[in-house]
């Protein structure tokens, strides 16, 4: 279930309940931490400037809410949060990169989930170092000027193995997400460790920016327990839960820009000011992290910032809405207004109004398959508007655009309104190809100036009409002056592409607005100089609107020649340089080695775990008369598991039936005395809870002959992939569940082995139980000099062996330090082959590739930090599981440049030891 849902109270009922009292979201349910109107008088907090960008400023802060919005120190805050999972970006340096991009694209908060299983390899064992450094992440978010909404679960969903619960929880008899004492003992310990780190970063203390805390509270009893737990740990920021008065809503992922507009404008139309984009950045479900519900390494390919940290087409509407909520405070206190109807009923309209400012908002939605043009009553006029098919628009009337200027209406969306010195700037956005029509109330005739050739205007009966055809990636500027004020109004009109190069930024010395580069990361005013850092891809003009007295501009530490332009901005004389071309090396020098030593009858398995348990905490029944074979019960929670069963009294054996449970892309392989019996994959859609069960029936070519017990009996070897847990039915068995025999009734003594001790740097979900993993074949520095030459794209056609083949190579990159290059590994695959491939870069498991069908090819994003880009060697290892029907040939394996920019952030190498310690 979702952790928060819309309040059961309607707006009218909630208004009656709230009255004019500001409600608290304090842990105990009191209003002691709520912010009151600045005057102390009763009544709603009026519309006004939002609080400034958050930071660890050393001052105490108050957080509250009323029926409209959050209140921070008595000011209304429309929260525009984007979700980011730090555990899906295993390079702490890149956290800053994505957080800076989120802030630049309009977010004022980041929603963070923490995966318990990433931090806890065993009961009582916790690790918050390296790629799991929560303290570092929270510091970085504060330095980037973002509030934090913290969600440590314990259950987080998020398409993570077991919903984030650790694998060992399956074996301790704890019923998760209940008030079961065994579960609460472990869950409290987890939350206690998180809270120990998070409490010093609370915004209320002035030592960080943690603003809200989300809790996994399926029931009232759970909520009461969590409240007591958090209070004892010093957590004082508001607690969001299923029955919070302000609902934390999480719309499902949207596929494109049009759907993103429909979804988020609809939430705005319902009065929501607690917005969250899931996902702002999806990232990579590396290692054995992904749940069966989303087994691909790429998590949410529809995210606004893609896995390679590049902006996508869906980002424009989110950027525009985020800047609107930040820079037009009217939208922090909107209430339902009298119904308005378009002449064409295919356009549905929601009408909102701000009781303080008189501003009105109109959310127009067209769910039909055709563009619809209709008239709509706005600002006292019938206005012709066009809403594209399956799209939405947000229009406004009555907005105050600086001193003395009021918007009568516009057919394009407002994006921002801000003042820079004696200049008022208002930006409006629409789709390329449409004509923007904006009307200003002007009692006296103004003096407009066209700064770009596209604009035209007329003045009629106290209204200035401005018309601008919106062109692709083109900004149009109109300057408006009048005799009533010495302030100049600058109107900016942009299509989606051009809007993504408009960057407002708030400094302690005043606001600035930057146009041109692909990204503005930071800005600072230093005397007469504005110092900017950011990214460029193509050559770009740089235009800066800054407070009076600013005469010079630097970009990424270098002074750029500039002069004052007609738009009262600083314009660079020469464009900023773009990014130079990069050439990536070919992957060659591959070496190859096969394994499956565990399938040989004389393999020494004396150190393996004996499967001798008779009871289990799993929800899967233990077959009568057989031992527990479930991998979790023996401590093997992630990755592949090997079983070896020594059979006594097997003479006459005709067939073997092996039942097993897996997650997505499951696989079983079996051998008898080293001879392949075959492979099996579960079919069907599973049980709906992320568990697939199947039985593999193998018939022997001929009945097994007699063998003396002194020979030890035949050996049945089984490899099972994989032990992926469902998000809900996390205690369903993984691995073998039972074995049946025909033609004989042998006695079987089972042993099994899985992943070795968790990697102390890479964590418990990095590797499984393959022979190569247990012996470090995936690690840098492993001596593969004795391996035979062989490429994964050129395996011999006759090599149709069942089992595991490893390939290794090294390559070097030399990317200049001023370039941020995102590199991917492309496995083109072949639709007639169906291998399973684990990809390791410098010992880090980047995820699984599944060939065949629609899953081929796949690009693995190699995050900088794990990928050494500065004149350093990288080790690439591939573990290929093939079923014996085809050769372990993957097709071409190559590096691909996914994107590059001049700029970026400094990247520190992520620790990638070549051997395990301890």
UniProtKB/TrEMBL annotation:
Its EC number is 3.2.1.23. Residues 328-502 form the Beta-galactosidase domain. Transmembrane segments: none annotated. It catalyses: Hydrolysis of terminal non-reducing beta-D-galactose residues in beta-D-galactosides. It comes from the Bacteria. Residues 43-54 have a biased composition (Pro residues). SMART domains: BetaGal_dom2. InterPro entries: Betagal_dom2 (IPR018954), Betagal_dom2_sf (IPR037110), BetaGal_dom3 (IPR025972), BetaGal_dom3_sf (IPR036833), BetaGal_jelly_roll_dom (IPR025300), Galactose-bd-like_sf (IPR008979), GH (IPR017853), Gly_Hdrlase_35_cat (IPR031330). Keywords: Glycoprotein, Glycosidase, Hydrolase, Signal. Residues 37-60 are annotated as: Disordered. GO terms for molecular function: beta-galactosidase activity. SUPFAM superfamilies: (Trans)glycosidases (SSF51445), Beta-galactosidase LacA, domain 3 (SSF117100), Galactose-binding domain-like (SSF49785), Glycosyl hydrolase domain (SSF51011). Belongs to the glycosyl hydrolase 35 family. This is beta-galactosidase. It comes from Streptomyces tendae.
